[in-house]
Structure formats: C-alpha cells, structure tokens
Amino acid sequence: MLYQYAKEHHFTNIVYYVDDGYSGTTFDRPEFQRLKNDIEKGKVGVVIVKDLSRLGRDHIMTGYYLEHFFPEYKVRFIAINDDVDSEKGINDFTPFKNIMNEWYAKDISKKIRSAYKIKAMNGEFTGAYAPYGYKKNPNNKHQLIVNDETAPVVKRIFQMACDGLTAYQICRVLKNEKILKPRAQVINDTGRYYNPLWVKHPYDWSTMTIYAMIKNEEYLGHLVCNKASTSSYKSKKLLPVDKDKWIIKRNTHEAIIDEETFKRANEIFYRIKKRPKKDGKRSMFSGLLRCDVCGKALSLYSSDKKWDSFCCVTYRSFGKSYCSAHYIRYENLYDFVLNDIRKQIKLALNDKEAFIKSIMINTNQNEQKSKFLYEKEIKKHEARLNELQKIEKRLYEDMALERITPEMFGNLTKDYEVEKKNLKKRIEELSNAINLNKDTEKQVQHFIELIEKYKNIKELDAKILNELINKIVVYEREIINGVRTQKIEIEYNFVNKIKNGS
Predict the structure, then answer these.
(1) In whole angstroms, how far apart are CA 240 and each of 113, 115, 203, 222, 451?
(2) Which of 60, 197, 273, 497 sits a CA distance of 20 to 30 A from 375?
(3) Out of 3.40.50.1390, 3.40.50.261, 3.30.1330.10, 3.40.50.12780, which CATH number does the structure's domain 2-119 have?
C-alpha cells in the first residue's frame, strides 16, 4: 500500500522503516530511532505511514513529532488512511485522533492483561519462555512439561544446595562442567533471546539465577504468575509484585523437586551466603552455629595463637555490653559434633524401635501443646468476629433510624473492617498450622535411613553436617565444681530433637 502510494505520487529514493513486534505506545523503537537519526542528518524529506497509529499511540509524543519535530526539519508527514498531509496543514481533528489511538492501545492492553490473568487463574502457563528445567507442551503452549535435558541439572542444583554449597560454588561447578546457563540454553533451543554477552559467555552462571531457582515454587509443580508487572501500558520495564499478590495454582504440572528437598535446600541455602575460606573451614559449619543468648551466628576467625575459634558476631561487632564471646575452638567443636553424631547413629541403629518411640513421644507432646494453643487462639478470634458483626448490625440499624449519619456510620465501621480482615487472616494462618499434620514416624524413619549412610563415619564435611543437622547452639563457657565446661546443643533434622552435651 505504501509503495503504491509513493509510486503514484512520484516519490523516489524509497527507504522502509519497519518496527514489527514493537508497541506503538513507545517511541523507543529501533527503526523509529533510525528514522529520527536520518531526519536529523537531512536524509529524509517525506514520512509516509498507513495511519496515525503507525507513527505512535502516545498522543503527547505523537503531537510533538507532528507539530514540532517534523516541521523543524522541514519533513512532510502523510498518514494515508487518516487523510493527513502536513503540506496541506494538520486539521483540527488530528489531535483527537491521536487521543483515540492512545485510548485504543490502553484498552487493548487492559484486555490482554485481563486475559492473561484469567489464563493464570485457570492454571495455564502464559510466559514467553518455560522455566529452566521445563519446556512448553508442543500440543498445548499453556502447559509445562519436564525437559529431560535440563531437569537433571535442576535436581543437581538443589542437591548441591542441600549439601551446603553456596551459590558461588554451584556456579563454579556448572561453569567447569560447561553446562549452558538458562538464557544460553534458550538461545540454543530456539535461536531467540539474543544478546552478544550470552553467546560469548554461555557457561557463566549468575548467583542471582541460582537464588531465583532455589526459591522457585514452579519446581514443585505449582504455577506461579504475576511475580512482576509493568507500571503502565506505556512502560516495558518489569517491576516486582508483592508476594501476597502472586497468582499460585497448585499441581498444574509435573514436579521436578519434591517438597522435602525444596524445603531443605531453602533452609540450608539461605543461611549459607558467604564464600568459603580457601581452607574450606567456613563452609563446614557456616550457617549452623548460633549463640544461645542473642541468637546470632558464630563466625570463624584465626588468632595469634595459631588456632581457629568461633565467636559470637554480636560480641565481635558491639562488644561485651551486648553479648558475651561464646568462644569455642574449631577442633573442640569438630570433635564434639563428630562424637555426638556417632552416638546418635549407635542409638538409632542398635534399637530402632526404642529410638522411634522416644522421638515420637517428645514430638507428639510438642505438637499437641501447639495445637491446643492454636485452637484456643482461634476461638478467641472467632468470638471477637461475632462481636464485631453484632456491633456493625447495631450501627446499621442506628443509621437506618437516622440516629447517626451515613458519614458517621462509615467512620465508625472503617476500623472494624480492618480489624475483621486481620482476624480472618490470623484464623486462616492458625488453621493452616493445625492442618499441617506431620507424619512423625515417617520423618524418624527418614532420619534413620539417612544416618545409616554414615554408620562408619570417620570425618565431617559440609554435606554431612547439613544433611543431618539443623542448628548447633553454643553456650558461654562456665566453671562448675572447679571444672571449665561449655554446653552445646545439636538440633538434628527431621526428628525435631535437641541433644545436649558439654
């Protein structure tokens, strides 16, 4: 159409500027910017578009180019279907046409967002690219299926996190083994998502990528949408959305990671954030040690006496007015933990039934206590909700009988509505906590299966520690009957039991 028009009106030296795939709501389009540069260099005398919307759908910027930019560079502008020709003068209806074009773009954007939201609520995947480890079903682009090539990498990343490796260490492993990073994998699979750096450095995994994968619930088989959004239909920049506004649909596709592994990976991974020292000692106990007073971590440091110790970070940062040192030598901690693990292995394997029974009694008592407290709190909140409903009913009757004005009614009920919302939210949280009935015996059995791997344990490493232990609480040293002692508590995974020692 444009070529035919140019030919009929004897325009020569025709050059095309095509911005397919870009929204008219922005003028930051590659080909439009090339057109603008050519105009500024005096290479363009006439601009011809099919209609005004092809120039842009932002009425302010479109008006700027029609009324200021083109006239400044003596460029004739023609919109064929809208009968606009700057040589004949811009008619009064043109600004209104631009406003209608922008309104149309806004309306279309609103409808598209709504359509995507509906699809997400129905459990349909709407992303441009499948999460790493998955691919789109060839028969249904809105369904995710496991990618047999990349899913094993995802499983390995989670296992390395469970073994106590940091994000930096995981990235190094993947790079050394020349495993394509996610964006490079997309390029390899589709030929799209092009960036020279991604092509030049296809194995340079980012720690941020690892962090995002570890907390991504889509690997549990759940669809997670609306994690980011644009500020307006004119902006393409994605901004993070509060987690309470995410759309999460459970069990929409096959899980790559099981619930237990996902939970353990996140617990361990996010308490281990620093790079290890060259000797590897930092990674072994990193994230496990806690001060019994302030609850903060214990950090490793080297002394002038040529031995390594752990010390409370609060004490080291602020001094004894905030907390005590809680010094413990590295080798002493190492020996204590190794011996206690051996003791637990011996107890569990020598008499499995007695071990399971003792753990279950302790756990069930704690669970029953928590359940009782939760149910008591729920009853309290429900009573308050009933009370608020009665109050609001009386206020409504007072308004209907003109004892109070509608304005007074609104002011009085405003705070009550906020309180009701908070109460309902808390009741839901407590109910969910009660409903999370853990299979205690299964957990203990899992712990026994785990420690069986280490029945002949000779030394410790980060993998063993993070597999078996949730935290280690260190107490301040004290003198008892003339003997210096130091209490240490080890909380093991899965069994929710704390073992004491000194």
Answers:
(1) 16, 20, 27, 19, 42
(2) 497
(3) 3.40.50.1390
Ranges for all domains in the chain classified under CATH 3.40.50.1390:
2-119
Q: What does DSSP say about strands 247-249 and 140-146: parallel, antiparallel, or unpaired?
A: unpaired
Q: Where in the chain is the domain with CATH 3.90.1750?
A: 142-269
**Structure tokens, 315:** 């004490």
- With H, G, I as helix, E, B as strand and everything else as coil, classify residue 16: coil
Strands 308-312 and 298-302: antiparallel
Copy the structure tokens of residue 210.
């690892």
Q: In one letter, which amino acid is 272?
A: I
At 169-216, the pLDDT tens digits run 899 999 999 999 988 888 888 776 555 555 667 888 888 899 989 988
Tally of CB atoms within 10 A around 313: 17
Least confident of 229-233, 422-426, 470-474: 229-233
Report the C-alpha gap between 274 and 279 in whole angstroms.
Answer: 14
Residue 300 near residue 308, CB atoms below 8 Å: yes
Helices in 70-214 by DSSP H: which ranges?
A: 70-72, 94-121, 151-162, 167-176, 182-190, 196-200, 207-214
pLDDT tens-digit profile of 23-62? 666 777 888 888 889 989 998 889 888 887 778 777 677 7
- Three-class secondary structure of residue 289 per DSSP: strand
Whether domain 142-269 has CATH 1.10.8: no
- Separation between Cα atoms, residue 191 and residue 366, nearest integer Å: 56
What residues form DSSP beta bridges with 499? Answer: 490
> Given phi > 0 = left and psi -120 to 50 = alpha, else beta, which region is 483?
beta
| Residue 388, token pair as written in the block | 């608020």
CA distance 420 to 257: 38
127 close to 233: Cβ distance less than 8 angstroms: no
Joined together, the tokens standing for residue 256 give 């790559």
3-state secondary structure of 79: strand
Report whether 326 contacts 356 (CB < 8 A). Answer: no
- Contacting residues for 173 by C-beta, under 8 A, at least 6 apart: 160, 165
